[in-house]
Amino acid sequence: MTIKEMHMVLHRNLGPFGTTAIGLGEMPLTIENNLGHDKGIETIHAALDAGCRHLDTAWAYYCSGGEEQTGEKLIREAMASWNGPKDEVTIATKVGHFRNFTDGRPTWDVDGRPENLIKRGKESALALGVDTIDLLYFHRPDPKVPYNESVEAIKQLVDEGVAQEAGISNASIEQIDIARGILGDKLIAVQNQYSPIYLDTADTLEYTAKVGLNFVCWSPLGGFRKPKDETKFDPFREIAAARGVSYQQVVLAWELAKGDHVFVIPGAHRPETILDSLHAGDLELTPDELVRL
Ligand SMILES: NC(=O)c1ccc[n+]([C@@H]2O[C@H](COP(=O)([O-])OP(=O)(O)OC[C@H]3O[C@@H](n4cnc5c(N)ncnc54)[C@H](OP(=O)(O)O)[C@@H]3O)[C@@H](O)[C@H]2O)c1
């Protein structure tokens, strides 16, 4: 990295962690169609070298039928071989999902039973190579398990020191309130899908601001796994063309402009895309542009 390429990535506080508002979503590096181990390490190192201080992974970021927890193990390896200030990096992981097959196709299944979450949380700490996970999310509600029982298991992991702070993901306002009741101040973040193609969670984005929680947008660029309505990005493309930046930067900047409590974790298969995304924090959209979007 040359001096010219180095820049300050926008910082925000995620609970007690001073970190970057733009994190690296690790999922594409280890689920199906990843570009291999070496490219994964290279991508994480490139993000960290460019100032990214927020990595997002999960127990379940591995290929269906393959070795489990490869995402967490990749992060551990990348951190071990990185020469930068490791203590500045906030690492978040999630438990409650696992990979499966449905009709021969790779799928995502849930197991929110307390005993499973406790076992998986401890395995996550082991795979990450830490005594205490910075931020541990309950990945997704399990319809077979009362929500409070799953969240109680996350609380137990915090009480036992397996995780420092807790988060929930794919949660409704009602579930956010249940989790607040159980976790109190230890609940710092809600990670929900949010992007120009997915605005159904806008109520939770507003609610988290009201109750003092952080909101982390997953698939902030609309994801890479399913075809999407590309026309939704047209207004972002227009502003990007006028500004001379990628439309992805405009999308991320628009999300970050929703409030100081908002974080984005764009995924990347390769260094180029995350390096571009990290510049979104430099892009201040004008009130006029925000109205157009
Ligand atoms: N909590 C949950 O249930 C949940 C669910 C899904 C995802 N997540 C998290 O959210 C993260 C992000 O979601 P995602 O990976 O599904 O989708 P995403 O971030 O919306 O999109 C990733 C795709 O966008 C491309 N991209 C990223 N930055 C770009 C840039 N600046 N210019 C051009 N292309 C760019 C990547 O390209 P390349 O492929 O070319 O690199 C990749 O194909 C995941 O990695 C994971 O950590 C959480």
UniProtKB/TrEMBL annotation:
CDD domains: AKR_AKR13B1 (cd19088). GO terms for cellular component: cytoplasm. GO terms for molecular function: oxidoreductase activity. The keyword DNA-binding does not apply. It holds the Pfam family Aldo_ket_red. It comes from the Bacteria. Keywords: Oxidoreductase. Residues 22-290 form the NADP-dependent oxidoreductase domain. This is Oxidoreductase, aldo/keto reductase family protein.
